[in-house]
Each structure stands twice: as C-alpha cells, then as structure tokens.
Amino acid sequence: MAKTIAISDDVYQLLSKAKLPGESFSDVIRRGMKRPLKLSDTVGSKTISKEDWERARAVIRNAEAETRKKLRKTLS
User: Fold this and answer.
1) What are the residue ranges in the chain where pLDDT is below 70?
2) 44 torsion bin: left (phi>0), alpha (psi -120 to 50), beta (else)
3) What is the pLDDT of residue 33?
4) DSSP string of 2-70?
5) What is the pLDDT, as a whole number, of residue 9?
6) Domain extent listing, the chain
7) 64 phi and psi, to 5 degrees?
8) Closest alpha carbon to 41 in 19, 60, 62
C-alpha cells in the first residue's frame, strides 16, 4: 500500500540526484537504508553538486588514509 510523506525541497533534490534510471523514489530510499550512499551511485546518472563531490572526495581520502595505515602496520 502506498503512503504519502512530506519531505523538504533539499531532501527531494538529494533523492532526485541519487535516483538511477528506471528507479522509483521508494527504491532510492530502500537502497539508501541498506548501505551508505557511494559515489558510484550518483556519478553517471546526473551531475552532482560541488558539496556532494567534496563530501565524496573526503570519504575517499579518509578510506585511502585508513588503507595506508593498515598496510604500514601489516608490512612493519
């Protein structure tokens, strides 16, 4: 059964950017609830905002730093 929910304009824009071709907004929300949004979820579907790009770049940099730490620890 379908339900109607109210969301703010900025949340609508975020959902719209995360929406893949042929995907419903329910699918976007369901996918988002299963795992964190990845850069690959938005790239290619639409142009992402500078803020989203900066956030994604920060996540990637942090992951790279953690990987380097683990490698150094393993190789020591």
Assistant:
1) 35-47
2) left
3) 83
4) -------HHHHHHHHHHPPTT--HHHHHHHHHHS---HHHHTTTSPPPHHHHHHHHHHHHHHHHHHHHH
5) 93
6) 9-75
7) -65, -40
8) 19
